[in-house]
Amino acid sequence: MTDPAPHEPIFTTVAEGRMALDDHEAVTAMLSRAFPTYSHWYQGARSWAGMQPEKRVIARSGDVVVAHAGLRRQFVTVGETEVVVASVGMVAVSPILQGTGLGAQLLALVDRAMSDLQVPFGLLETGEQTVPFYARHGWQLLPELTGTYNDFSADGGATLVTSQGGWLVKPVHTTIAAWPEGALHVNGQIV
C-alpha cells in the first residue's frame, strides 16, 4: 500500500483519554472555523462545547485537523424507556473542504465507532439545513420528537433547553422500529 499524498486526509479514531494537548488545540482551531457562531466555546485547548466526547473521529492533513466528530455513550429517556445511545456531535469538515466527500468518509467512520461502542442507536441534533446530509447517510429524522437537555454557557451557567425538530437517530445494533415512543430527555448534556 502506498502512502497517501500529504494533502489527502488521514483518519483516526481516538479515545478521549489518549488525546494530547496539541491534539485538543488542533481540533479546537478547526471547530472554531467550522462553527463561527460558537467560536467562543472553542478556545485554547477546549475542544468541546457540550459533554466531552468519549471517542473522536479525526481527519488530519499533515498536522492540521480538517474533519471531526465526537461520540459518547449516554443514557437517554424516551417516553418511559431508558435507552443507551451514542450521542454524536461536533460533526464538522473544515469550511474550505466542504463538498469534497470528506463528510461522507467521516460519517462512515462514525458508524464504525458507534458499532464499536455497542449501542443500539446513534443520536444527534442538528439544524434544518444539514438534515438532508445526514439523511443521505442513513440517519433518520424524527420530526415530531421533542428533546430536552442541559445546556451550559461558556461561563458555566446551566439552563434546561427543550427543542423540537432536528433530532436524528441512526440504528446501529437494532432497527428504527425499536426506537421507543415519547418525548426525549437527555440525562445531561449532548456532545
Write the layout of secondary structure elements.
Blueprint: E1 10-15, H1 21-34, E2 55-61, E3 64-78, E4 81-93, H2 102-116, E5 121-125, H3 131-135, E6 140-141, E7 146-152, E8 158-164, E9 167-171, E10 184-186
Parallel strand pairs: 4-5, 7-10
Antiparallel strand pairs: 1-2, 2-3, 3-4, 3-10, 5-9, 6-9, 7-8
Keywords: Acyltransferase, Transferase
Organism: Frondihabitans australicus
GO molecular function: acyltransferase activity, transferring groups other than amino-acyl groups
Describe the protein.
There is one protein chain. This protein has helices at residues 21-34, 102-116, 131-135, and strands at 10-15, 55-61, 64-78, 81-93, 121-125, 140-141, 146-152, 158-164, 167-171, 184-186. It is an alpha+beta fold. Strands 1, 2, 3, 4, 5, 6, 7, 8, 9 and 10 form a ten-stranded mixed beta sheet that branches. Strand 3 and strand 4 form a beta hairpin. This is Beta-1,4-N-acetylglucosamine oligosaccharide N-acyltransferase NodA. Residues 9-173 form the N-acetyltransferase domain. It comes from Frondihabitans australicus.
Structural class: alpha+beta
**Counted beta strands:** 10
CATH superfamily: Gcn5-related N-acetyltransferase (GNAT)
> Which CATH top level class fits?
Alpha Beta
Distance from N terminus to C terminus (CA atoms, Å) equals: 35 Å
What is the domain total for the residues? 1
Helix content: 10-25%
Q: How much strand? A: 35-45%
Oligomer, anyone? single chain
Spans of at least 5 consecutive residues with low confidence: 1-5
The number of helical runs is 3
- Which topology does CATH recognise? Aminopeptidase
Q: Note the overall shape.
A: globular
Strand/helix succession = EHEEEHEHEEEEE
Protein name: Beta-1,4-N-acetylglucosamine oligosaccharide N-acyltransferase NodA
Organism: Frondihabitans australicus
Keywords: Acyltransferase, Transferase
GO cellular component, one term: cytosol
